[in-house]
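User: For my dataset I need records formatted as: sequence, then C-alpha cells, nothing else. Please produce one.
Assistant:
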Amino acid sequence: MMENIRKYIIIFALQQLYDWKDRLQYRMQFAVFIAYSSLVPITSYVFVTVLYSVSGGIPGWGYYQLMFLTSVNNTAIAVLYYLFSIRGTYDKLKRGGLDIYLIRPVPIVISLLSPGNKYFIASVLGGIVLMVYTILHLSFTPIELIAFVLALAAGNIAYLFFLLFFVFAWYKWFTAGYWMANMNDIITDAGTWPLSIFGIFGAFVLTVMLPIGVAVYFPALIFTGKVSALTYIAIIFVAISLAAIFYKLFKIALSSYNSAAG
C-alpha cells in the first residue's frame, strides 16, 4: 500500500510539473492571470475593512473573525481551483478526453486533480498570508490550530467529492456542465459569510446539500471560541460522512459514463 501511495505521489508531482511547463510557455498571459488572481485576497481584505469601518459588521463576529473566515474561504477555494477545473472536466466528458484517464493505472481522482488552473497559485499564497495575518490577531491554542487544520482538510475533501459528483451527474442528466462553474462561484461566495445569516434552512442546505459549510465555515468557527469538544467531533463526523457519501455518488455517476464511442 505504501508503495502505491508513493507511486501516486510521484505521478501527481510529474503531472503538476508538466502542467506548469505548459503554462509558462505563454509568459505574458501567465503574468496577467497571476496578477488578476492575486487581487482576490486583496479585495477581500479591503471589503471586510470597509464593512467594519462603516457599520458594526456581522453580529457576533468581530473584524478579525470575519476576516479569518473570508481568508479561509478564499484559500480553500483557490486550492480547489488550482487542482480541479470544472470547465476542463466538462470538456473532457463532452469530447471523450476522459477515456484516457479510465485506462491509466492510477485512481481517476488523481488524474482529474492535475489539469486545474495554475494561475490560482497567487490566490492560494495571498490567502495564506491573509490567513496568517488574521490568526495572529486571534486568541487560539496549538490544539485549536491542529483541530482547525484537520477539520479544514476533511471538509474540503467532502466538498471536492461533491463537485466531482455534481459535474458528472449533471452532465449525464442534462448533457451540460459549464453552468456548474457559475453555480460553484455562487456557493463559494456564500462561504464568505457566517451561515447564521442564511437562517436554519439555508444553513442546512449549505452544510449538507451544498457542503461549503463543512469546507469553510465550521473549521473557521473553531477560532471563535464557540466550538466545544462535542461540537468538534460532530463537525469531523459530518465532514467524513459527506465525503464518503459524495465519493460513492461520484463513482456511481462515473460508472454511467459511456466514453467517446458512446
